[in-house]
Every structure is written in C-alpha cells, then in structure tokens.
Amino acid sequence: MSIKLGDTAPNFQAESSLGDINFYNYLGDSWGILFSHPADYTPVCTTELGYTSKLKSEFDQRGTKVIALSVDAVEDHQSWIKDINETQDTNVEFPIIADKDRKVSELYDFIHPNASATATVRSLLIIDPAKKVRLIITYPASTGRNFNEILRVLDSLQLVDAHTVATPVNWENGEDVIIPPSISTEDARKIFAKGVTEIKPYLRYTPQPNI
Ligand code: BEZ
User: Where does the Thioredoxin domain lie (predicted)?
Assistant: First the structure.
C-alpha cells in the first residue's frame, strides 16, 4: 500500500520490545513518529535510535510519541537496546516493533524491493493527532537521518496548524515566518499584529506569531 500525505495512517496491532501494541492506542491524542530501520545490530541504526532516545524531552515538549520498526525478532530488539544504551549513553524507552511477518512494513510500504528484498528502508512518518500523515521521508540504508530536522518539521507543522502561516527555507523556531498567498497584504496587516514586511507582493514575512 502506498501512503501519501493527508492519508489516514492505518492502525495495526504488533509485537514490540515493550509488548503487544495497538498503534492508535499507543498514540492516543499525541502526534506520532513511526520510523523504520534496516536491521538490528547495525552501526547507523544504533546511532539513530540512540540519538532519538536522547531527544525524548524534545519530543515530550512537542506532545509527540515515537515508535521504531524493523523486521527483526522481539528478543533481538531487547538485546540490541542494551547495546544502544551502552554505546550511545542513553536509555531507550520508546517501543521497537518486531515486524517479523512484515505486516506493518507492507502496510506502510517500508520494504523497497529494488533497495533490499528483505530489509526495511529508512522511512519516517509524522502523524498528527487526527491520525493524518503529515510528513514522509525515505533515506537509503547507508545514510542516517537528521532527527533535528524532524523536530524542526514538527515545530513547523504545529505552528501552521495554529496560525495561518508557512515557514521558509531552513526556518528554525523563533524566526520570521511567511504569510501565505491566500491572504492579501491588506488583510495580513490586520491579522498579524507584529507587522508585515512585503519584499514582493507574493513574498511577505511576519514575526513568528506564538512567541
Ligand atoms: C546500518 O544501520 O549501519 C546499516 C544498515 C544497512 C546497510 C548499511 C548500514
């Protein structure tokens, strides 16, 4: 199944390092990050999962729950987590799905046969509290993802859900944001009390509204 932005993220039941999980029950009303990695006991994956674990307070601040996945067995996940904790100086608390029968991988299109017939690629989805898919990225096995970028996208999505704005290239939380073309400059001057800077009629900035 091919999942696209705006689709409802499908629910599933799966075995995980923390026991059986119903995806929707795990997410509750939170934002969610579901990410696949190629295999347990591999170096790039070890650094990715360790770093994600270290970002726990950042995800908590953004009301976001994290869940990982590979097609390895639950016993491997549990044993590998000890290695991750030891080598990355952390304590992995989020669940890792043991998708041995590839049920979830097929549901979410995490196996790309021309990349690998057996291992999952490095895909990551951000899912909002309405269970809509808001971001999909897929990286090759040899390239670790940038989880600071995932935090940045979460900040952008949560901002644009609360205010009618967009965020420009390389935007970081706290920087000026873009007024979308759907708002005229005249209306923008009424809506955005902090001011509007018009560079071109279609390129207008305002200070971030929620700080
Ligand atoms: C890794 O996680 O280190 C890795 C996994 C598959 C292929 C290459 C690297």
Answer: 3-159
Catalytic residue of the set 21, 27, 45, 97? 45
Superfamily of domain 13-144 in the CATH hierarchy: Glutaredoxin (3.40.30.10)
Q: Which residues does 126 contact at the CB level (< 8 Å), separation at least 6?
A: 31, 32, 33, 133, 134, 135, 150, 153, 154, 157
pLDDT value of residue 1: 65
Pocket test for ligand 1, best of 44, 46, 52, 83 (most atoms within 8 A of CB): 44
Class of the CATH-defined domain 163-206 = alpha beta
pTM above 0.85, yes or no: yes
* Predicted confidence (pLDDT) per residue in 121-144, tens digit: 999 999 999 999 999 999 999 999
Query: Helix or strand or coil: residue 123?
Result: strand
Q: What residue's CA is closest to ligand 1, atom 6?
A: 141
Pocket residues for ligand 1 (CB within 6 Å)? 38-39, 42-45, 141-142
Residue of 42, 51, 121 with the most ligand 1 atoms within 8 Å of its CB, for mutation: 42
Rounded to whole angstroms, the Cα distance separating 53 from 47 reads 10
The domain ranges of the chain are: 13-144, 163-206
Look up 55 and say whether it is catalytic.
no
